[in-house]
Amino acid sequence: MANIKSAQKRIKVTAAKTLRNKMVKSALKTTIKTFEAAVASNNVEEAKANFENVVKALDMASTKGIIHKNMASRKKSRLAAKLNALNA
Description:
Layout: H1 5-40, H2 44-63, H3 69-87
């Protein structure tokens, strides 16, 4: 354990940020899974609605620095391809 007061504070702040990042990542994974479940069940309307939520969640996570912006872009592209394959 750190002895210096500022180091103790950094430990607390890092722990709080880690929990927040975990929460956002977990919610992101859940939204992606609901989208993929809708695609698997060939439900186009539900998939479109879920896709909007996924894009919003990915953009928010990349804006906050929780995931890299290129990762968010890559995931959006791949999920959009799944949605377009479902429509075709």
